[in-house]
Specification:
The structure is a single chain. The protein is mainly α. The chain has one domain (15-381). Helix content is 70%, strand content 0%. It has helices at residues 15-38, 51-59, 64-81, 86-103, 111-136, 148-154, 162-165, 174-219, 224-230, 236-251, 253-260, 263-278, 289-308, 314-323, 325-342, 348-381. It starts with 14 loop residues before the first helix and ends in a 21-residue tail after the last helix. The model is unreliable at 1-11 and 395-402 (pLDDT under 50).
Length: 402
């Protein structure tokens, strides 16, 4: 979903932003699918130091051509396993969408109370529907019993008790609580952005994020879930980068897009992402990991969207999936866990074919479900048409529309 239209199309402003969301949500879904299929035993983890040597040793190529096939498989598996970095992409997109829609006037129409009402109306109906579907649906993995935690999750509480609820029922729902936190602080962040300007704001949020992550890692030795998103401060820079980008795009749109889609912009994206990958090697450097991978991958996928726009049918399809990525984010994981566990006997090519078909069916079903829930919400409340709440779906649900 773009900042101006419910479903972006090539030729509309920011159509590429919906394409980014489409690529990101499909990558995340496939990543979760592959993790269930892999079960941590078939292929090594991409961020381990010995990933490629271990992969090739397990592949044991008997000839030069077979060796090339093994290298190709290793690159393919590595690419899939990096899909979890798309969470940061959605954070950047969320900050962008929310800020761009407000930067024109400087204040939300109807005040912040009305702003909150509209955002929560985007989030909760589909979120509640996903919970109800989880309860009654077959072919889903239900690793834990339905107990008091289900009620806590239903009302959006995915933080306490952290070790028992963060990944409860549908593990992807942890992101919902992070988005709620960012909603709460967004008006304050937006005022800081207005007063400090985009550059000063980025410096402030960058410092806050680094200090927060350092304290959690080195001083408090806190649960790693706090760094993942149980506390918004650990992921603030990605969201703030999107906010700064949104303000710049409102102030000087042609200059910003020209820079973003230049060769230098692409090189910057790859360099930033590479630094993020390297930062896993040192504990202190990990304070900057998510900021680097999220921003870098956002830039890379922006260029991927532009490349897709040159191929007939690709950009509209990705943009449509991106416009309704919220529904797919909310429902996919229990289904792909169930299917992935039952496809472990397949080789990689057969898994790829089967997983691709299942993901396509899930995407179509999720899009239809989100459209139905939006229409039902409109009918019940007698409101103007509710737009897709996909601006942050991993992702998750921050809608940039008013």
């Amino acid at each position: 979903m773009t900042c101006e239209t419910p479903a972006a199309k090539p030729g509309a402003r920011f159509w590429w932003l919906d394409c980014i969301r489409g690529m990101a949500i499909l990558w995340i879904v496939y990543f979760h699918f592959f993790c269930a299929y892999n079960n941590g035993t078939r292929y090594p983890w991409v961020l381990s130091r010995d990933f490629f040597p271990e992969f090739l040793a397990n592949c044991a190529p008997a000839s030069f051509l077979y060796g090339l096939d093994c290298i190709g498989q290793s690159l393919y598996v590595a690419l899939i396993q990096l899909g979890f970095h798309c969470v940061g992409v959605f954070l950047v997109a969320s900050g962008f969408g929310l800020t761009y829609s407000l930067a024109k006037t400087g204040n939300p129409a109807g005040g912040w109370t009305d702003w909150y009402k509209k955002r929560l109306l985007r989030l909760f109906p589909m979120y509640w529907a996903a919970h109800l579907i989880y309860l009654v649906s077959p072919f889903v993995t239900k690793a834990e019993p339905v107990d008091y935690r289900f009620f806590l999750s239903f009302i959006g509480e995915r933080i306490w008790p952290l070790d028992m609820i963060f990944y409860y029922a549908n593990p992807a729902w942890w992101y919902f609580a992070l988005l709620l936190q960012l909603y709460v602080v967004f008006p304050v962040l937006f005022r800081f952005l207005q007063r400090l300007g985009a550059t000063g704001f980025l410096v402030l949020c960058g410092a806050f994020t680094l200090v927060t992550r350092y304290l959690l890692l080195e001083v408090l030795h806190a649960d790693g879930n706090y760094l993942q998103g149980a506390f918004f401060g650990s992921r603030l820079f990605e969201f703030a980068a999107g906010m700064a980008f949104g303000l710049w795009s409102r102030q000087r749109p042609l200059q910003v897009e020209k820079s973003l889609f230049s060769r230098g912009g692409l090189a910057l994206g790859f360099a930033t992402y590479a630094l993020g990958i390297l930062s896993y090697r040192w504990l202190v450097a990990y304070t900057a990991t998510d900021a680097l991978t999220g921003v870098g991958l956002f830039i890379i996928l922006a260029h991927g969207a532009m490349a897709g726009g040159k191929v007939a049918g690709v950009a509209p399809t990705l943009a449509y999936v991106g416009a309704y990525s919220y529904g797919l984010y909310l429902i996919h994981q229990p289904y792909v866990l169930y299917a992935g566990e039952r496809m472990r006997g397949l080789n990689l090519p057969m898994f790829t074919l089967g997983a691709g078909a299942i993901v396509a069916v899930l995407a179509l079903g999720a899009i239809g479900l989100e459209r139905f829930v939006n229409e039902l919400t409109n009918l019940v409340l007698g409101k103007a048409k509710v737009q897709p709440a996909s601006a942050s779906a991993p992702g998750g649900p921050v809608s940039p529309q008013g």
